[in-house]
Amino acid sequence: MTRRAPAPPLPVAAAGPAAQAHATAAHAHATATQAHTTAAQAHATAAHAHATAAHAHAAATQAEPVEAQARAAEMPAPPTACTDDAGCGYDPATERCGADPRLNRQPPLTDQGIVCYCDAGACALLRVLPVPCEGDSDCAVAHEPRPHPVRATRERPHEKGRPCRDFTLSTTCERTNICTLRRHACPKR
User: Fold this and answer.
1) Which residues pair with 116 in a beta bridge?
2) Per the domain annotation, does 76 fall within a domain?
3) Is this structure's pTM higher than 0.70?
4) CB 3.0–4.6 Å: which of 28, 76, 82, 188 could bond 87 by disulfide?
5) What are the start-end ranges of the E strands in the chain?
6) pLDDT tens by residue, 134-150
7) Are residues 99 and 118 in the same domain?
C-alpha cells in the first residue's frame, strides 16, 4: 500500500464559505485515510506475527510424537515375569505389557483394544482392531492367544447352537457394524 500525502488546504482568504467548508472536509478525509492506512499496516503486522507463532506451534507439535517415541525408547521396559493374565498390565508410555502392579489392567475385550496376557511366564501384548461386519454371520471368536472377535471364515465359522450348551463365547454384529464378543453367564456344571 502506498501512503498518499494529505491534500494541502486551500487558501481561505480567497475562497468563500462553501470553499472553506469543502477544504475542511477534504482535510478531515485525508486525516481519516491516513489513520485507516496506519490501522491496516498494524493489522498486517499482527497477522504476520500470528502466522509466525502458528508455524512455530505446528513445528513443535510435529516434533512431539518423535520426542515421545525417543523418550519411550530410553525408558526401561517394565518387568514381564508373570504367572497369570491378571498379573499383566499395559504401560502406555512404552506401549508394552508388563508385570508391574502400577500398570493399567485392561478390562475383558469386547470389540477392539489391547489385551495383556501371560504367555510362557512373560507378559505379552495383543492388539485387536475393529472387525467390520454386515450381519452376525460375518463374525466369529478366535480363542488364541486370548478370546477376541475376528471375521468368520470356513475354518472359523460363526457360532451355531445355543448359548451355554454349545458355547460360552459368541459374537454379534452391532449397530456400529463392528463384531462384538459376548461372554455368556453360564451356570457351573
Assistant:
1) 125
2) no
3) no
4) 82
5) 89-91, 96-98, 113-119, 122-128, 139-142, 148-151, 169-173, 179-183
6) 999 999 999 999 999 99
7) yes
Task: Domain of residue 146: give its range.
Answer: 136-183
Q: For cell 470389540, what's the residue?
A: 111
Same domain? For 109 and 146 the reply is: no
Does the CA dihedral 167-172-178-181 come out positive or negative? negative
Lookup: cell for 167: 458355547
Cell 525408547: give the residue.
73
Sole residue written with cell 491516513 = 34
Q: How far is CA 123 from the centre of its chain?
A: 28
Q: What 3-state class would DSSP assign to 105?
A: coil
Residues 6+ apart with CB under 8 A from 91: 78, 97, 98, 100, 103, 104
Q: Which tops the pLDDT comparison, 53 or 183? A: 183
